[in-house]
Amino acid sequence: AAEGTGPGPGDGAGPPAPERVLFPPTFSVSEIKNKQRRHFMFLRWKQQQRKEKLALKKKRRKEREALGDKAPPKAVPKTIENQRVYDETTVDPNDEEVAFDEATDEFAPYFNRQTVPKILITTSDRPRGRTVRFCEQLATVIPNSHVFYRRGLALKRIIPQCIARDFTDLIVINEDRKIPNGLVLSHLPDGPTAHFRMSSVRLRKEIKRKGKEPTEHVPEVILNNFTTRLGHSIGRMFAALFPHDPQFIGRQVATFHNQRDYIFFRFHRYIFKSEKKVGIQELGPRFTLKLRSLQKGTFDSKFGEYEWIHKRREMDTSRRKFHL
Questions:
Q1: What phi and psi values does residue 292 have, to the nearest 5 degrees?
Q2: Is the DNA repair keyword given for this protein (predicted)?
Q3: Which among 293, 289, 288 is positioned nearest to 311, based on CA atoms?
Q4: Which of 17, 23, 97, 219, CA to CA, is 20 to 30 A from 164?
């Protein structure tokens, strides 16, 4: 009871004291001064919230079972993805214009099986240890790829040499303060060239519960949520890095998952536990890409013509608008 309202020492047996409420409606953890006590009370509050949520979930499930077929459909939670602003450039697989563009673009020779991917992976000038290890591990993910470390050689001189030696793609890993922070992907010999910002790089030794070293089998490639014309082009660029026919006996899969214009790369191996249960085991490395620009032709920093450039102040006006 509040001060001045409860029974005093000389009073008789008053009404029974009300049951103590663990967390009153006005409870605020931040009002607790002691740090350890504040942390302990916060954990108890979170536990109580989980119990209430679980009890409500069980109650709703019992109500749905009682109603049977008359139960109303489950409510779809609102997310940024399903509230996405419609993009006019969303690709329709049955569109004749899209089919014509795919048959005549720079990647048509690859998808028509006229070329075999051959990749050159290089770095910024004089890379450090972490970038070197990342390039070596990336070469084990992409079949038929070769690592070359630059020492003051300009990209404009590297590209003609790559074309002369039948390389189909050039990957450049840039670094800042000894950390990989950028990726340039150029399709040879006619482009296009995509520039990505790279973040959240994790090497194999930094991944928990990782599997054994990947084998030399050609992995399966999964591309998720590349729905617009721009995203379609980026997805075709990634697909053109890998040979056509994956070797399923290796049980390896490379995934490029686009979510809110962030491209998450993961490299996994399937683990068949039984005929019905299948698990996945991450092999690494992992990283996240954010498209900064798409340039026509091969890399040209001075006179290159850009198809698309990310302009934050003009394009990032709504959290529900995505470009890929």
A1: -105, -35
A2: no
A3: 293
A4: 219
Q: What is the tens place of the pLDDT at every residue in 85-139?
A: 888 888 887 788 888 888 888 999 999 999 999 999 999 888 888 999 999 999 9
Of 228, 280, 225, 227, the closest CA to residue 254 belongs to 280
Q: So where are the chain's domains?
A: 29-64, 91-316
Cβ pair 323, 230 in contact under 8 A: yes
More confident residue, 18 or 240: 240
Alpha carbons 231 and 293: distance in angstroms, whole number: 12
End-to-end alpha carbon distance in the chain? 60
CATH among 3.90.1570.10, 1.10.150.20, 3.40.50.10480, 3.30.70.260 for 91-316: 3.40.50.10480
Q: How many CB atoms lie within 10 A of CB 170?
A: 23
pLDDT score of 63: 87
Owner of token pair 């563009």? 101
